[in-house]
Amino acid sequence: KNEVEQSPQNLTAQEGEFITINCSYSVGISALHWLQQHPGGGIVSLFMLSSGKKKHGRLIATINIQEKHSSLHITASHPRDSAVYICAVGAGGTSYGKLTFGQGTILTVHP
Amino acid sequence: DAGVIQSPRHEVTEMGQEVTLRCKPISGHDYLFWYRQTMMRGLELLIYFNNNVPIDDSGMPEDRFSAKMPNASFSTLKIQPSEPRDSAVYFCASSLRRSYNSPLHFGNGTRLTVT
Cβ contacts (< 8 Å) between B45 and chain A: which residues? Predict the structure, then answer.
């Protein structure tokens, strides 16, 4: 079993829909990262969180440490949101920087 | 800020040749990471440095891979000799560790093809 599991693996939506991508992990962490990778290949860090909830524009990320689960929500989705979304978990202390990645969720938003 | 700069963007080489990938982190960042991305295995950490010192290289696949960071503004990842299974996209990332919650900044990656 992978240490970081994302669901769904593929997601297709119509423009304007509310989207949720889930991430479950099985190891103790200090922080969880949500990354976005566009078809051109570049990777952008969307959020890093260790508790609660963060919001940036139409994107919202939540984490439940007790349940070892995080969600990434996109409100009013748009075709430009089409990308691969990757969850990664990081340990702290002397293991800072050792990220373990999920397999990614491929999101396609149709106009 | 120019962000993390990687070169070259694309590299095509023949099996057995030496390959050197380069990375310039964001100025002032104290952590530098090398990742590899393949279709089969996704993103994997190869090695990371803190203040130019290698901290964890357990992800380096084998002795053919080596990485150096001679100063705070430059790092290299070398593969010698290269093999077709090394074909992948190699990303460099840097961060500034103010706390455990420091975001990563990725370069655009180097797409390596070994024929």
Answer: 97-99
ω into residue B81 within 30 of 0, thus cis? yes
Beta bridge partners of B64: none
Question: Which residue of chain A has the CA closest to B89?
Answer: A41
Q: Residue A26, CB half-sphere, CA atoms under 13 Å: how many?
A: 7
Residue type, B57: D
Name the minimum distance, in Å, from the CA of A49 to any CA of chain B: 7
Could you tell me the two tokens for B18? 């030496």
Between B93, B101, B111, which is nearest A50 by CB?
A: B101
Residue among A41, A102, A104 whose CB faces B89 most closely: A41
Cα–Cα distance for residue pair B42/B89, rounded to 1 Å: 10
Distances in Å between the alpha carbon of A104 and those of A95, A107, B84? 23, 9, 24
CB atoms under 10 Å from CB of B6, counted, come to: 21
DSSP state of B64: T
Q: For all residues of chain B together, what is the average pLDDT?
A: 92
Handedness of CA A76, B39, B94, B102 (dihedral sign): positive
Taking contacts as CB-CB distances below 8 angstroms, the residues of chain B near A41 are 89, 108-109, 111
Inter-chain contact A50–B31, Cβ cutoff 8 Å? no
Q: Residue range A7-11: average pLDDT?
A: 96
- Taking only the tens place, the pLDDT of each residue in B74-111 is 999 999 999 999 999 999 999 887 655 578 899 999 99
